[in-house]
Write a structure and sequence with these properties.
- With about 350 residues, the chain is α/β, with parallel strands linked by helices.
- It has 2 domains: about 230 residues, Aspartate Aminotransferase, domain 2; about 55 residues, no CATH class.
- It is built from 14 helices and 13 strands.
- The strands form 4 sheets. A 7-stranded mixed sheet has the order 4-10-9-8-7-5-6, sandwiched between helices. The chain has a two-stranded parallel sheet with strand order 1-13. The chain has a two-stranded antiparallel sheet with strand order 2-3.
- Helix 3 packs antiparallel against helix 12, helix 4 packs parallel to helix 12 and helix 7 runs parallel beside helix 8.
- It is globular.
- The mean pLDDT is about 95.
């Protein structure tokens, strides 16, 4: 394995081997990380790395893209079938440009977006003042209820007061199931778009252990690693509901990707996404997803019995949040100490 890398650049080869050893020996518990299959990693290391495919299938700026067109079309077809949506864009290089592309496609600069407060679990692309979203759009935020869970009545009141053009549901640090139906009803009442950012729970949705936003959201964004167990990358989906609201959304999203935010897609990444989507369609993947949730629930239960303050009282997904103040322990210090013991978390 990697004999050419070892010969050409022994320093990088050695660092890769060190990381390989580290991943095998530690207990990785960062919710936004996962172990891809060997097949996914093999797809990432193919000659598709060499091709420049600026544009979209059948509409490229370079010649020689017949194979790249087939790879991307296959990834799109698999995603559409797996999630039950009419349109998927598989070109975003990560979750942040995927969310930004949605804002560019659906809104005008300065329009208002509303999402969960960042300190309570919202993502940096949901309105961090130093990020693109915070600089180009106006943001308002709703908060969790006193029990650290979504308070849908309070969210509705806030949304109707703020009147955003786009409402975000889906978060970077929230351990409970999301009622997408209620979120959809709130967005409909306010007359705004509903974007479901499901990056952390995509695999669980595919596996049927978390409700799907497809019937209720207009637009869905997701990364392709995390619980989907694919390569680093992202996808943007438009639902039937989204097409009814704005039939031009797919074209607007494509324009937001290129020339808006990116140049050519990474064809090797697209191929690896296609492989991960095929793996996610198997019965064994669904069993895997259920086991993830069962393990998380069991761990949260044991931590509570040991006197830890589990935020919201437990978990419904792959993620557990702990408030360590009752233990008088700094979270950063705890993370460093646990890494020394071979347990990696954040």
């Amino acid at each position: 394995m990697m004999k050419n890398l070892k010969k050409t650049d022994p320093q990088i080869y050695e660092l890769v081997k060190q990381e390989e050893k580290r991943q095998k020996e530690v207990l990785e518990m960062i919710p936004s990380e996962n172990y891809t299959s060997q097949a996914v990693m093999e797809a990432l290391g193919t000659v598709l790395t060499n091709k420049y495919s600026e544009g979209f299938p059948g509409k490229r700026y370079y010649q020689g893209n017949a194979v790249a067109d087939s790879v991307e079309s296959l990834a799109q077809e698999r995603a559409c079938k797996l999630f039950g949506v009419p349109y998927v864009n598989v070109q975003p290089l990560s979750g942040s440009p995927a969310n930004s592309a949605v804002y560019f496609a659906a809104l005008e600069n300065g329009q208002k977006i509303m999402g969960l407060s960042l300190p309570m679990g919202g993502h940096i692309t949901h309105g961090h003042k130093l990020g693109l979203s915070g600089r180009l759009f106006t943001f308002a935020h709703y908060e969790l209820g006193s029990n650290d869970k979504l308070d849908y009545d309070a969210i509705e009141k806030a949304v109707l007061k703020e009147k955003p053009a786009l409402l975000i549901c889906g978060f970077t640090a929230y351990s409970r199931k999301i009622d997408f139906k209620l979120c959809g009803a709130i967005a409909d009442k306010a007359g705004c778009y509903l974007m479901a950012d499901i990056s952390n729970i995509t695999g669980l949705i595919v596996e049927g252990v978390h409700p799907s936003p497809v019937p209720y959201a207009h637009i869905i964004t997701t990364t392709t690693h995390k619980t989907l167990r694919g390569p680093r990358g992202a996808m943007i989906m438009v639902t039937e509901k989204g097409l009814k609201k704005n039939p031009d959304l797919p074209k607007k999203i494509e324009s937001a990707i290129i020339p808006g935010l990116q140049g050519g897609p990474h064809d090797n990444q697209t191929a690896a996404i296609a492989v991960a989507l095929k793996e996610a369609s198997t019965a064994s993947f669904k069993k895997y997803g259920q086991q993830i949730v069962d393990n998380a629930v069991a761990l949260a239960t044991e931590l509570k019995q040991l006197g830890f303050d589990v935020v919201s009282g437990g978990t419904d997904n792959h993620l557990i949040l702990l408030d360590l103040r009752n233990k008088k322990v700094n979270g950063r210090v705890a993370a460093i100490a646990l890494e020394k013991a071979g347990i990696v978390l954040n």
